[in-house]
Amino acid sequence: MLSYFIRSVAFRHLRYSVGQSFLTIGVVAISVLLIIYLRTIIGGTQNRIVQNTTGAIPHITLEPPERTPVGAWQLANLGIDTDTLYVGEVVNLPKARERIEDWRLWLPSLDRADPTVTTVSPIVSGQAFMNRGSRRQSVRIVGVIPERHNGIVEIDKKLVAGRFIGMAAGDAVLGQKLATDFGLKLRDKIRLVGPEGLTLNFAVAGIYNTGFGQVDDGQVFVTLRDGQSLLALGGSISSFGMRIEDLYDAENVARRIAPALPFKVQSWVLQNPNLFRTLDAQSQTRDLILIMTTIASGFGIGSILVMVVTSKYREIGILKAMGATPGEIQSIFVLEGLLLALVGCLVGVPLGVVLLKALAAIRSVGPDGRVDAPFLIEIDPLLLLGASLVAIGTGAVASFFPARRAGQIDPMQVIRGS
Question: Which of 171, 252, 279, 301 is deepest in the core (most CB within 10 A)?
């Protein structure tokens, strides 16, 4: 516990050096403000990039395994009888359409594959032609169970008109841009032609605008059964889509569940390696800026306290002549540094919060005409606490060296003026 003497002298120094005190508080406040601002803005930008990438796709995709050719010389390794000699030639077989036949048996197991899994959606996908009148366009057909797939891509929240959950046989839900290009509105009829030439008629049950071009521009949702019929898949599906609680943990979850499944398991991380490298480089740049800001703040506090010590040589000498120990002198200046850093945090944190709230209130019109916030702001209380602790710790470290110098002053030399 600091003595009354240490506390009283420290407060008196700060009170009589108002200019220097305000300068130090300003340095700390700006440092705290920069830490909060940079961490939030860059983190929000990264989150928006990731959301724009993963908002229209599953976090983890489970597809049929690829068929790997096996040479005759490899049969023994597989435990297959090699007494029979096989003679022939190598031919390239046409790739069969990948499908999962027994998906109904696997669905309950996949729901429980990992505690972090929130949604599993069986998906049928393939290319088809969409016709209306004289207009014809290639589109991607996605057959889903709406109630499940809405947990992968939240179509229901993005509806401009109509419905997605509760979609019935013969219904189709498509993006607003595609509907505009074809001049479609609810209950209008469209014709879809599958890859095998099968033609089915559908009614527009819903129109959505997710903001993801790959979903809005050329994708048509139908029921799972209609998708199987149109794409001639019988009772099979193309893949499973899986969503988990933390999208950044997708690769770890994929590795955990892959050994127990007969599927090709891929996370969105492996499907977007360039994005991850970009985010990693951005994070390193952000951390470097924050480190340099913290160091600059420490030098600022340290240099101001050095000036204080230099200007207070005579007073320090008198205090030591009156019986103050070197430890007490050091404690006085360390306490001053901590107090200045604490007040700087009390100023910097509210300023940072006000700045972030002001940025969060800004709205702009995007290229698609939608009004949206250019900054994705999420104020994290742990960030505010962390920035404050960093600033206070920096103040303590920066004040230690001037305090140590003050404690080593020889009172007799100071009093004699040498």
Answer: 301
**Phi and psi based region of residue 211 (left: phi greater than 0; alpha: psi -120 to 50; beta: remaining):** left
**3 state DSSP class of 143:** strand
Phi/psi-derived region of residue 235, left when phi > 0, alpha when psi is between -120 and 50, beta in every other case: alpha
The sign of the CA dihedral 160, 163, 165, 171 is negative
Interatomic CA distance for residues 61 and 101, integer angstroms: 16
**320 vs 411, residue with greater confidence:** 320
74: pLDDT confidence band, cut at 50, 70 and 90?
Answer: low
Above 70 in pLDDT, residue 173?
yes
Cα separations in angstroms, 217 against 126, 211, 368: 15, 10, 12
- Encoded tokens for 378: 């999420």
Whether residue 382 contacts residue 311, with contact meaning beta carbons closer than 8 Å, is answered with: no
Rounded Cα–Cα distance for residues 39 and 388 (Å): 13
pTM as predicted? 0.67
Q: Which residues pair with 248 in a beta bridge?
A: none
